[in-house]
């Protein structure tokens, strides 16, 4: 008869916190423990399973292949534990659904989806994770997010495509587009638009310089509105009060971008419900 083994949930919570934050120090702050305590808990979990779950280097903590496979299972076990404890304490059982949305599509753009979902699934707490499509894909692959919307060049689209949108140059009323090198700003260093923008500018023999990256849509738009730089933007998401430029301004044309929906093969009923609402909303917006 095999010996029954019991997983220490404290160790699981430390591991998940490190995976979500990307570092021992950030996980320590989240769980209100010392870095040494978090490190020891992760080591004990690795010893329990006799495998390496995390690699530590100057960039922080990275999941190993076994860590990537283990993470969603660890999260499910913790969610079940928390739901069971809440239920036995007489609290309302709340499930958690994590969705990843690109920075420029978060906020008001998807507010109708979140409102409709909360009405249809009042027992589910939705956590919206905003980021670049590159970062969201990475977190989705690690099991940190339940479903995501991804923006990518049409030629790179491989998953369920919800819409196709032209990428354009966004500018203010000032003639900043005549400056050389061309001043640019992006929401993040991992912005999905960067590689194609740099490639098209290089093909057109136009020099450029990046003056701003800050992970804020509002600040990026304010930088453009102030006439300090241009930024690439999806045409349907262009706010009022901005100029859209193209080849008539001496700028290279930019490709269409696909808007994809990534949902796990065995998604929960909640995730499938959210996916359906997202499909309906984007279909209505893009016609």
TrEMBL record:
What residue stretches are annotated with the HTH lysR-type domain?
Answer: 7-64
> Which InterPro entries does the annotation name?
LTTR, LysR_HTH_N, LysR_subst-bd, WH-like_DNA-bd_sf, WH_DNA-bd_sf
Write the record's keywords in alphabetical order, separated by commas: DNA-binding, Transcription, Transcription regulation
Spell out the molecular function terms from Gene Ontology. DNA binding; DNA-binding transcription factor activity
Signal peptide from the UniProt entry:
none
**Pfam families referenced in this protein's UniProt entry, alphabetically:** HTH_1 (PF00126), LysR_substrate (PF03466)
What the record says about family reads: Belongs to the LysR transcriptional regulatory family.
Q: Protein name, please?
A: HTH lysR-type domain-containing protein
Q: What is the lineage of its organism?
A: Bacteria, Pseudomonadati, Pseudomonadota, Gammaproteobacteria, Pseudomonadales
């Amino acid at each position: 008869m095999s010996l029954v083994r019991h997983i220490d949930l404290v160790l699981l919570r430390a591991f998940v916190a490190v995976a979500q934050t990307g570092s021992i120090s950030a996980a320590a702050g989240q769980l209100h423990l010392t870095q040494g305590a978090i490190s020891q808990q992760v080591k004990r979990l690795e010893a329990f399973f006799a495998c390496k779950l995390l690699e530590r280097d100057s960039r922080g903590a990275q999941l190993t292949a076994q860590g990537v496979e283990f993470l969603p299972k660890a999260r499910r076990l913790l969610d079940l534990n928390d739901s069971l404890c809440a239920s036995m304490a007489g609290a309302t059982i709340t499930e958690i659904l994590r969705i990843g949305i690109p920075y420029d599509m978060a906020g008001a753009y998807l507010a109708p989806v979140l409102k409709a979902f909360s009405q249809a699934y009042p027992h589910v707490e939705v956590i919206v994770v905003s980021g670049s499509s590159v970062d969201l894909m990475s977190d989705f692959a690690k099991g940190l997010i339940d479903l995501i919307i991804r923006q990518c060049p049409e030629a790179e689209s491989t998953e369920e495509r919800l819409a196709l949108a032209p990428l354009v140059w966004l500018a203010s009323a000032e003639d900043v587009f005549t400056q050389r090198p061309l001043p640019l700003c992006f929401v993040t260093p991992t912005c999905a638009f960067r590689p194609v923008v740099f490639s098209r500018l290089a093909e057109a023999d136009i020099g450029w310089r990046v003056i701003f990256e800050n992970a804020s849509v509002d600040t990026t738009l304010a930088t453009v509105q102030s006439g300090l730089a241009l930024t690439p933007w999806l045409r349907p998401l262009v706010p009022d009060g901005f100029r859209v430029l193209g080849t008539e301004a001496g700028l290279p044309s930019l490709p269409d971008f696909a808007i994809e929906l990534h949902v796990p093969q065995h998604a929960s009923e909640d995730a499938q419900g959210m996916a359906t609402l997202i499909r309906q909303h984007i279909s209505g917006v893009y016609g």
